[in-house]
Specification:
The protein has three helices and three strands. The protein has a domain of 92 residues: GMP Synthetase, Chain A, domain 3. β2, α2 and β3 form a beta-alpha-beta unit. 36% of the residues lie in helices and 13% in strands. The chain has 170 residues and is an alpha+beta fold. The model has no long low-confidence stretch (mean pLDDT 80). α1 packs across α2. The radius of gyration is 25 Å and the shape is flat. A three-stranded mixed beta sheet has the order 1-2-3.
């Protein structure tokens, strides 16, 4: 892929994310993030990879809503960008977060001594936070260098002037 194509991919990713976040009014578009855009060398087509948080049915509804909104997004891109051709946009679900969550769950099950369930149903696309358990080698308390108190704020009249002069008092 050329540098020009990579720059256009990044520009399209930012602009599509902005348009979807601000201008698309479809309530089915929930927590969607444009993770990547891949354009063909001739700029006629672009794969738009979208990560969606939620249950599988919610993800499918969001992807369907985004596919219906792509003509509007393409029109908006035409008014915002000054490039020769605005590519046709093809939406694809980016499931890397879900796959990463599955790997974390499998590792957690192996660490606990359980047999990983290969046929576990797909749930949320992000892991649920858990409390970190103490491990061998952890410090008893936070080192003092890690938790510094904030520096006191200086008032404006305490700041030195660029010309070295002192400020006149009122």
């Amino acid at each position: 892929m050329s540098q020009r194509t990579e720059r256009i991919d990044e520009l399209l990713r930012q602009e599509i994310g902005s348009i979807v976040g601000r201008d698309v009014a479809d309530p089915r578009v929930g927590f969607a993030t444009i993770t990547s855009v891949e354009t063909t060398p001739d700029l006629r087509h672009a794969k738009v990879w979208v990560s969606v948080i939620g249950q599988p049915a919610e993800r499918e509804a969001t992807i369907t809503a985004l596919r219906r909104a792509m003509p509007f997004v393409r029109h908006e891109l035409g008014t915002r960008l000054h490039i020769k051709r605005i590519p046709d946009l093809h939406i694809h679900l980016d499931d890397t977060a879900e796959r990463g969550t599955r790997v974390l769950r499998l590792l957690r099950e192996l660490e606990a001594g359980e047999v990983p369930d290969a046929d576990a149903p797909a749930g949320e696309s992000l892991p649920t936070p858990v409390v970190r358990l103490p491990h061998l080698g952890d410090l008893a308390e936070e080192p003092p260098s890690a938790a510094r108190p904030p520096a006191p704020r200086r008032r404006r009249r305490d700041l030195p002037r660029p010309d070295g002069q002192r400020r006149a008092r009122r």
